[in-house]
Design a protein that fits this description.
This protein is α/β, with parallel strands linked by helices. It has a domain at 91-155. It has helices at residues 41-48, 74-78, 96-106, 111-124, 140-152, 170-185, 197-203; strands at residues 2-10, 16-25, 30-34, 56-61, 64-65, 81-85, 158-162, 189-193, 207-211, 214-215. Part of the ABC transporter FtsEX involved in cellular division. Important for assembly or stability of the septal ring. It is found in: Cell inner membrane; Cell membrane.
């Protein structure tokens, strides 16, 4: 369960980026986060990752009060979340395997288990035959799928995506978002920030719409 309870985020000398936000996403559900540029979508995701601190209010994630989480507990908390970025954030001097394996290697996992996990994640995103390719040899859609494999390789409870199809054409956007929906159908809680209204209408998922840091009437649909 992700729950924002009267959450406000502001910076000194600036307007409120998020204002008394109340939002609830049940465990295992998928929803879309929409709104114009500057509405607060990226800030909301940063709060969930504890890259930013809540100014006021309470943010609960699967029983953890993220708004008061001590710094020493943040790394363990983040390991429960997978993140997909619009610009992939791949290491261009490392092959696909190394990009996906990095999170597991940092955690100290045994090499054989890492190999099995990475291969399974790449198979899920249709890149099992690209495991030793360098990122520069892949298409934009394939690079995004590497980013998704990296996000799911540690079997996270929650998957967050910030404009994951922003640089892709229509057919690739459909492919990527359907992949997220498949993860949701297997029990992962998924929140995707997007400005693609065509995909919003196609998917028919719950929508949280932000305007000037405030949640407008959300569209509650069956996920």
């Amino acid at each position: 369960m992700i729950e924002f309870i009267n959450v406000t985020k502001h910076y000194p000398g600036r307007h409120h980026v998020l204002r008394e936000l109340n939002l609830k996403l049940p465990t295992g559900q998928m929803a879309l986060l929409t709104g114009p540029s500057g509405a607060g979508k990226s800030t909301l995701l940063k709060l969930l990752l504890r890259l930013e601190d809540v100014s006021h209010g309470t943010l609960m994630v699967n029983g953890v009060d993220v708004s008061t989480l001590k710094k020493r507990h943040i790394p363990a908390y983040r390991r429960r979340i997978g993140v997909v970025f619009q610009d992939h954030k791949l290491l261009m001097d490392r092959d696909v395997f190394s990009n996906v394996a990095l999170t597991l290697q940092v955690s100290g996992m045994h090499a054989k288990l890492i190999q099995n996990r990475v291969r399974a994640a790449l198979e899920k995103v249709g890149l099992g035959n690209r495991i030793h390719n360098m990122p520069a040899t892949l298409s934009g859609g394939e690079q995004q799928r590497v980013g998704i494999a990296r996000a799911i390789v540690h079997t996270p409870e929650i998957l967050l995506a910030d404009e994951p199809t922003g640089n892709l054409d229509g057919s690739l956007s459909t492919e990527i978002l359907d992949m997220f929906r498949d993860f949701h159908q297997h029990g992962t809680t998924v929140l995707v920030a997007t400005h693609d209204q065509t995909q919003v209408e196609r998917l028919g998922l719950p929508v949280f719409h932000l305007e000037q840091g405030m949640l407008q009437n959300s569209q509650e649909k069956s996920a």
